[in-house]
Amino acid sequence: MTGTWVDIAFGVFAVAAAWFGWRVFVTDSMVRATFSLLASFLNVGAILVLLLAEYLGVAMFFMMGVEMTVMAIYMVAFMMNPAGLNPMQMVHQPRVAVVVGVLSTAGFGAVALAADLDTVAIVDPDGTIRALGHELMGSSMLVMQVVGVTLVATMVGAVVLSAASGRFGPADVGSVPPAIVPGDDTTRPGVDVGGDGGGHDHDHGHGGGAHGHDDGGDA
User: Do the Cβ atoms of 188 and 181 come closer than 8 Å?
Assistant: First the structure.
């Protein structure tokens, strides 16, 4: 890719990342906010690929994809307003948030434009990256392994919780009301089965016909 196309792609991904990040805070739906955040992270990952940080970009793709999908499942399962059926405010102290966002954007933009970045080529890029990896992960490898196993267990648990059927049959069986047995009036609410003089009608078949009479009155 030429420099011109890289610059155009960088601008498109940057604008898309900022727009989807803004959408996170203006939607009423927790699920829409989650997937908007996912789209923003994916655009940031594409920017990392353009900056030749392929490992970080691809890692952001699969990590954010899995993490945001699991988060959406948890939102639907446990949040009170997952689909935005009731209006809600996604931002606490919106005025403070706007001021902090504007100042942060201005500060980062000023650093990006005014900083004198080093352009000296690295003599041994592979060795430098390897040394940086050991410096960052050397003391944290056990922690990252534990975190990896925990994430896998979380994903498996989320899939199990969201499955339509489980070990003991379909998950929606418990929500089905019990069947009414014909002739059993105790299963129907509002029916008086006590014989304390209350008036109610009975249908008795006589020769294929039916008529009603009052058991509690002076017929």
Answer: no
